[in-house]
Automatic annotation (TrEMBL):
The keyword Oxidoreductase applies. InterPro entries: CO_DH_flav_C, CO_DH_flav_C_dom_sf, Diverse_Substr_Oxidored, FAD-bd_PCMH, FAD-bd_PCMH-like_sf, FAD-bd_PCMH_sub1, FAD-bd_PCMH_sub2, Mopterin_DH_FAD-bd. The keyword Oxidoreductase applies. This is FAD-binding PCMH-type domain-containing protein. It comes from Streptomyces scopuliridis RB72. Pfam families: CO_deh_flav_C, FAD_binding_5. GO terms for molecular function: FAD binding; oxidoreductase activity. Gene3D superfamilies: 3.30.465.10, CO dehydrogenase flavoprotein, C-terminal domain (3.30.390.50), Uridine Diphospho-n-acetylenolpyruvylglucosamine Reductase, domain 2 (3.30.43.10). Keywords: Oxidoreductase. Residues 1-220 form the FAD-binding PCMH-type domain. It comes from the Bacteria.
Amino acid sequence: MYPFTFTKVSDTREALNAGRRGGRYIAGGTTLVDLMRETVERPESLVDISDLPLREVTVTERGGLRIGALVRMAEAAAHTKVRTTYPVVSEALELSASAQLRNMATIGGNIMQRTRCTYFRDVTAACNKREPGSGCAAREGYNRTHAILGTSDACVATHPSDAAVAFAALEATVNLMGPDGERSLPFADFLLRPGSTPDREQALRRGELITSVEIPAHPRPLKSGYLKVRDRQSYEFALTSAAVALHIRGGVIREAKIATGGVGTVPWKLPTVEQHLVGERPSARLWAQAAERAADGARPLAHNRFKIALLKRTVERQLRTVGGTK
């Protein structure tokens, strides 16, 4: 680990001033500390923001849900409003990491976490995300766990967050505060596809701080849930996952929100699957037909072609679980 300075701040103004000077924000530290220990990340200055007042889960005026950036993953998963209103979020959080990490890691840190690509974490390997212009060892290396959607010639790494998949499905908003004031970004615009600049992973400006993630109100009743498929049952990242939310009224699907993880360079929304469902009556046949569109545009690599079929089965299974099989 390389030398760094450490500052603990007690209010937002202090945090923003330190961030503007190039300090890296840290709260739970469950990702950044690991990367520093492996010398993947070498920040010169850390700013501890764990005392900032960003720890509340509140209902918005329009009936949505706002989750503070410093709410612990375990707290958010157990919160009554999260569990009853958006179980897909609670389930995604509970299927993430270990209980110990969920007790430390924050919502803001979770959506900011960096890929688990082994080449990214191996400082001797070529990685455009870690060292722009060095190449992408994963493209020609062992790439079984890598992305098939949203990839580029520069990067094929997946985004690791389960909670981010649920937020993407529900079309959440990320609220930010920075030297230039406050602003909000749709979740779909917050996390960036690699393109030719895979080292730029979020649409954050210098010194900006995540204050909360806000889920908009959705029509009721809303059934939702999260399915994660992985090599082992605990403490493992997804090969594929599916976050599904369905508004079914009068026996007809009025609204469908679906995203998938483990297969994309960012949490991957599935608009063609959603469109296939809206206006239809739930049935096993409908779920299978809609899921066939889940891998549209996929670009598999040498070792992860199996993800195409696995993704379709994952989406179909979760549609059946959430929507029923009549």
